[in-house]
Amino acid sequence: MKPIEIKRIYESLSKSDGYRILVDRIWPRGISKEDAQLDEWNKDLAPSTELRKWFDHDPDKFDDFSKKYKKELEAQTETLKKLRQKTKDQTVTLLFGAKDKEHNQAVVLKEVLEHSN
Question: Which PANTHER family does this chain map to (predicted)?
Answer without folding.
Answer: CYTOPLASMIC PROTEIN (PTHR36849:SF1), CYTOPLASMIC PROTEIN-RELATED (PTHR36849)
